[in-house]
Amino acid sequence: MDEFGRKALLFDFYGPLLTPRQQEVYDYSCSEDMSLGEIAETLGISRQAVHDNLRRTEKILEEYEAKLGLAEKFLAIEGHVENIRRSVSAMDDSQETRSVLKEIDAIDALERR
User: Fold this and answer.
1) pTM value surpassing 0.90
2) Residue 9 in contact with residue 1, Cβ under 8 Å?
3) Long-range CB contacts (within 8 A, 24+) of 50-56
C-alpha cells in the first residue's frame, strides 16, 4: 500500500478519535487533496499552523495504529477473505459453492463497516 493509501486507511479507522479541527485539516489534506496554502486560506490560519496540525495528526494516527493495530488486522483479514474467495471460486459451480461465496461476501461486507 502506498503512503497516501496508508494515511487514508489510518484516518478511516482512527479519525473519529481526533479533535474536530484535526479531522477538518486532515480531511482537507487527504480527501480533498488541498495544499497547505489552500487549507490555510479556507480556515483563516497560517500555513505553518496547517503544517504543524498535519504533522501532529499523522503522529497521533501512527501511535494509535502502533498500539491497536486495527488497520493491519483489517488488511490481513481482507487478504485472507480474498484468498478464500479465489479458492472457492475455483471449485465447481454447485449450490454449496455459491452458498459459501455468499457467506464470504457477507463477511467482507461486515469488515468494511
Assistant:
1) no
2) yes
3) 50/25, 53/21, 53/22, 53/25, 53/26, 54/25, 54/26, 54/29, 56/22
pLDDT, tens only, 46-101: 999 999 999 999 999 999 999 999 999 999 988 888 888 888 777 777 777 878 88
Interacting residues of 112 by C-beta distance below 8 A, sequence separation 6+: none
Q: At what angle do helices 3-14 and 47-68 cross, to 10 degrees?
A: 80
Closest alpha carbon to 58 in 37, 30, 77, 85 = 30
